[in-house]
Amino acid sequence: MNQPILKVHNLTTKLQIGQHAYSVVDNLSFDLHLGKTMAIVGESGCGKTMTALSLMRILPQPPALPSEGQVIYRDQNLLKLSEREMRSIRGGRIAMIFQDPNSALNPVYTIGDQLVEAAEIHLGLYGDEAVNKVIQALMEVGIPSPEKRIDDYPFQMSGGMKQRAMIAMALMCEPDILIADEPTTALDVTIQAQVLDLIRRLQKKKGMALLLITHDMGVVAEMADDVIVMYASQDVERGKAIDIFDRLAHPYTIGLFNSRAGFTDPGSMLQPIKGAVPSLTHYPEGCRFHPRCPFVMEKCKQGQIPDFLLPQGDDHRAKCLLYDGTRESEERRKK
Predict the structure, then answer these.
(1) Which of the residues 22, 47, 122, 286 could staple to 92 if both were Cys, CB 3.0 to 4.6 A apart?
(2) For the chain, what is the domain count?
(3) Domain span at residue 117?
(4) DSSP secondary structure, 54-97, as one string
(5) Residues 6 or more apart whose Cβ sits within 8 Å of residue 160
(6) Which of 141, 172, 203 finishes a domain?
(7) How far apart are CA 21 and CA 58, in angstroms?
(8) Whether residue 162 sits in one domain with residue 181
(9) In a domain, 70, yes or no
(10) What is residue 217's predicted lDDT score, i.e. its pLDDT?
(11) pTM (whole model) above 0.85
């Protein structure tokens, strides 16, 4: 297999709250390859967006502390670069589509002004050359009459059009890596499908790596090659998408699937996961999912929970004692 374009090793990000520091991303590791899509999935508050913001180094400090670990892009550890060096990569070589285009776009500047600025900073284009590049980018993402729409302010565009403009800004510099943070959350179902199809077509055309952050298992099934399931700042299951969908391993992953109405059985009722994601200031001891887990055992409530390699699949792993090989766990798993 080709070398990964991004290698993340033991990424840890903490927030300083009062006298204590709490992990919002806890020892996360993964590889991202050109042309492939890695999905990070989980409930709100599990650490998905914090992972993306940590990779881009755009978390405000304070309350965030400098991230630890390694984020290797083209033989450089991004966590060790100066802010000036990082600016040359951020938005150019590694781009991000944010969840809410209304907060990501400046309301007092036209769409054209904002895209031209990106062309000036990252491509060194100015004047008519920059404007032509912007028109080409807007045309590529399906915005009609782009030579006229560049004079529109964000409020003059629909939600779908604003998201397309965000995608145009992100892809104009032809980045190696695109991070898409819940890119369809604020859109209706029809526009969601159009935006996902657009991202998929542009990824195939440009050969970039895609890190997709979502809570929607349907989007994961449609888009992802590899999957990381996050819960309470940790990855609890990881593997090829086909392996995870065929052999759900971690009880939390099972809960995510069951909580999507009709996902496994078109006539089935919604089965929500009981309880809520714990506050980062009060993570449980042992397995962080154990207060909500239907398979919980006494040994789940203390100590560090290691990753277990599952016997089937391509490097399919789960952070769950159900797979520790003991008789108690095997019997518990069968219930």
Answers:
(1) 122
(2) 2
(3) 105-172
(4) HHHT-S-TTTBPPPEEEEEETTEEGGGS-HHHHHHHBTTTEEEE
(5) 187, 191, 194, 195
(6) 172
(7) 18
(8) no
(9) yes
(10) 82
(11) yes
